[in-house]
Amino acid sequence: xxxxxxxxxxxxxxxxxxxxxxxxxxxxxxxxxxxxxxxxxxxxxxxxxxxxxxxxxxxxxxxxxxxxxxxxxxxxxxxxxxxxxxxxxxxxxxxxxxxxxxxxxxxxxxxxxxxxxxxxxxxxxxxxxxxxxxxxxxxxxxxxxxxxxxxxx
Length: 153
Hints:
By secondary structure, the protein is α/β, with parallel strands linked by helices. The protein is built from six helices and four strands, in the order H-E-H-E-H-H-E-H-H-E. Strand 1 (16-21), helix 2 and strand 2 form a beta-alpha-beta unit.
């Protein structure tokens, strides 16, 4: 079996990658979101982007592989409220929904900056991929970024 050209044997249509949490409550809303995008590669890890921040090499590998296979153009980095991983592993979990959402966006913003540098070092052009931060509730509803909360440049 030739595994050197999987895209030629089984074409992928998605031009995006969604990083999400393994929480089963997100499966249905993530499926709807991916359909709205017209398809996407999906990578899941406990805690979504909050959890992936602890494993930057793994995350970079997911993005680079999706780019190599299908020239993805967008990466959606997602975390969610009411996350068991966040509750178990955050050194000082934020109290209250607004504080938690703000902290999750801050983590995603940091990951975007670090991921951009990591994948450039692996040969992906810096302008090849656009990054999108998403914090959702367990039903997939978008939690808005706090007014005035900075974004990575």
